[in-house]
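Ticket #4471: structure output looks truncated?

Reporter: J.K.
Steps to reproduce: submitted the chain below (196 residues) through the standard prediction queue, then opened the result file.
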Amino acid sequence: LALLGRLLGAEDRAAFLASLWRRIWASVETTLAEAEEPGPRVHYAIGPKGEKTVRLGSIHLEALAILGATNVAEVEHGAGGRVSVDAGDVEHWDPDLILTIDPSFHANAHELPVWRSTRAVREGRVYLAPAPVLSWFDYPPSLNRIIGLAWLARLFYGDAYHADVETEARAFHSAYYGIDLERKAITAMLAKAGLA
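Returned output as attached by the reporter:
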């Protein structure tokens, strides 16, 4: 942000955006420092049937690593690229929760024969990343993930994350995208994302 601000002659705007990033990061950093337990074991399901994930070590999973969560998928390492998995694999890996960016999978995982026996699905721990403009978790793996760190810190560590995610989300989208999120819309997104 600072570099772009200098290149574009928009140092003040860049400084403002960076200040929001630093505020979110300070809350996340405090949460991680005070966490008494490690982050959860997570599976990232992609596609309408949850049939894919991403390779270990991929940039798409950076948020999990930053937040001390464990990606359970025992798939090949490498940059980018989606790889196929099936529910039998996920059942064997037994994640604490499943994250997805696919609304169809989120809505229907409990009805899919290959998924409904998976513990996280049975117990209702499949969470849809909010995406009022771009996904807070992935695709693209860019600045949109800044607010995703606040969401995931709250999801992973509960009340140990002291900042209000709704307030942070409204400020982030206003500053970065120039839009005002309606309270009803953000509440609905956060409910699907596990922050009901």
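Triage note (M.O.): checked the attachment and the full token line is present. The first helix runs from residue 2 to 8.
Status: closed, working as intended.
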